[in-house]
């Protein structure tokens, strides 16, 4: 069983620019596809309506775990929680980590989502598969976002 997803991309933008795109709630929302209610803060939950076509009926909710400036931003959430009639609060959430390192191009960004082994068996494989595809798209979205002139 696959327990984690890892996506890495060398982005042509400075670390500080990628950091801001990850941790400024408005910028995060722009590339991720969510309208977040407030700034990210360690230990706090942030939520907002998804703006991704076909998922507008859903609310994204994340619990910020770490914000180590220009190095690591992480949160927990319930992966592929797409049934609005299902209460996912009893499930153990997965951990999403955005790690940044300076590179010759600018920033080596690694997105890791782990903890799929704790997801109930009846939805584990689909949650992993859907998030694997989702992170493949989202890492490109953030690269395109930081490439745009400010």
From TrEMBL:
Keyword Methyltransferase assigned: yes
Alphabetized Pfam families for the sequence: AHSA1
InterPro entries tied to this protein: ASHA1/2-like_C (IPR013538), START-like_dom_sf (IPR023393)
Domain spans labelled Activator of Hsp90 ATPase homologue 1/2-like C-terminal: 12-146
Family label: Belongs to the AHA1 family.
GO biological process, one term: methylation
UniProt-recorded name of the protein: Vanillate O-demethylase oxidoreductase VanB
Annotated organism of origin: Woeseia oceani
An annotated Gene Ontology molecular function: methyltransferase activity
Cross-referenced CDD domains: SRPBCC_CalC_Aha1-like_5 (cd08898)
Alphabetical keyword list: Methyltransferase, Transferase
Keyword Transferase carried by entry: yes
Coiled coil: none
Taxonomic path: Bacteria, Pseudomonadati, Pseudomonadota, Gammaproteobacteria, Woeseiales
Domain of life of the native organism: Bacteria
């Amino acid at each position: 069983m696959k327990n984690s997803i890892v996506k890495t991309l060398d982005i042509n933008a400075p670390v500080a620019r990628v950091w801001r795109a990850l941790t400024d709630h408005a910028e995060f929302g722009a590339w991720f596809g969510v309208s977040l209610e407030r700034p990210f803060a360690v230990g706090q939950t942030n939520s907002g309506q998804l703006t991704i076509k076909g998922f507008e009926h859903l609310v994204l909710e994340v619990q910020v775990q770490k914000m180590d400036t220009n190095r690591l931003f992480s949160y927990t959430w319930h992966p592929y929680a797409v049934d609005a009639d299902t209460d996912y609060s009893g499930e153990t959430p997965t951990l999403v980590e955005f790690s940044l390192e300076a590179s010759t191009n600018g920033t080596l960004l690694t997105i890791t989502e782990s903890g799929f082994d704790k997801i109930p068996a009846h939805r584990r494989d689909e949650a992993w598969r859907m998030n694997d595809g989702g992170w493949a798209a989202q890492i490109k979205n953030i690269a395109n976002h930081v490439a745009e002139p400010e």
